[in-house]
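Good morning C.,

I know you're traveling, so I'll keep this short. The sequence:
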Amino acid sequence: MPLFGREPLIEKPAKHGKFKRIEDKVLLSQEQAGLLLGDVNRHMKPSYLREGTEFTLISSCYFDGAGLDFFHHHFLKTPKRYKLRVRRYAPNGIWSEEAPLIELKSKEEGISRKRRFSLTRDNYERVMCGKTIHITEELRALNPKAASEKLLKWVTKINGFILEYGLRPVLRVQYKRFAFEAADGFRLTMDRDLNIEALDFNVSEAARTSLISDEIWGKARVLAAKYDRSRHCVVELKHTGRPPQWVESFLKQRVIEETSFSKYCWAVNETARRDALRAEA
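The tokens, ready to paste straight into the viewer:
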């Protein structure tokens, strides 16, 4: 029985546009990550947009409403869940001059789908203030590979969520990523040193109360307890059916199982926990 069994997909990811894939996650100790890296270097090649890149610093700004709807959807196992985030990249820790990417990620029946495109400066400032995106000639020119009707569809979808949930940037998670790709398209990433910055984390009183009292808070605590930034590495296995046999063998030999882990939900838990501790002090 394979460790990660799925029906195969056929779409391959791209930097911009729409794609779908299976994303399995495992949490490894730094020692385990180092051992896996030895196997990775034998089977895969580094995968970065710029030559000479050894790692990428990623800044992900996550959006949610005052009721933390997307956070709750994760733990309620809502059949189709969404995340909206704006990402910036810093190859080798040097921030790129490229426009930030906005990304709407959905997950349904274990399959992740993403729609992402570059934002103009004006639209970046708008979404960071909780406003909708404007379709402009500048936006179209910034995303030449996206057909006009597709870009309109993606913007309409994101704008609908912004208006429905009152989305605004609540947290920023920054981390160091090492990325690799095999000839068959299998991708593996290792994320280390997760750091959180609270942005507009002014959730409603009802949401704040539920965070520390209902079962979702308990589930969030369990998720957060899995990860220790000084000890662990978040490894994502990105494929269209199942990881290669050598990956499954590595994990099976060390009794490492797939786990559910959300950087955003972890960050919400940590931020809420810190707020609660400050309130008690």
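Safe travels,
E.
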